[in-house]
């Protein structure tokens, strides 16, 4: 990504330090893992192509304070997808369209943790 691309983001994105599986709530299948995350969207790293311009209901868990699980379930719109550098891997940018306020606040708290690495 070029340096100018980050200027168009509305919110800073935090790198996800661990492998966090992302599950399609409609099928119960893992569709990939988180690459980075913001209050308004995420980068999905996947082994399969998703449906262009589709709406997904996704679920993932972040590490919360004190090692507690922080479950997030979100409606997301696939804005773009492209091949990754690794063979057979895809990257997709999704914008959140439905995130309950309680989970949005928990996500804000996670994003604001000290020592966060931003993408």
Q: Any overview of this molecule?
A:
- With 119 residues, the chain is mainly beta.
- The protein is 9% helix and 45% strand.
- It has one helix spanning 101-111, and strands at 14-15, 21-24, 30-37, 41-46, 55-63, 69-83, 90-98.
- 20% of the residues are buried.
- The model is unreliable at 1-9 (pLDDT under 50).
Keywords:
119 residues, globular
What is the overall silhouette? globular
Beta percentage is 35-45%
Summed over residues and divided by their number, the pLDDT gives a mean of: 86
- What is the N-to-C succession of helices and strands? EEEEEEEH
What spatial order of strands do you see in the largest sheet?
Answer: 2-3-4-7-6-5
The share of residues in helices is under 10%
Uncertain spans, ≥5 residues at pLDDT below 50?
1-9
Radius of gyration: 14 Å
The number of distinct helices, counting runs of at least 4 residues, comes to 1
What's the total count of β strands?
A: 7
**What class do helices, strands and sheet pairing give?**
mainly beta
Amino-to-carboxy terminus distance: 10 Å
**Most strands sheet:** 6 strands, antiparallel, barrel
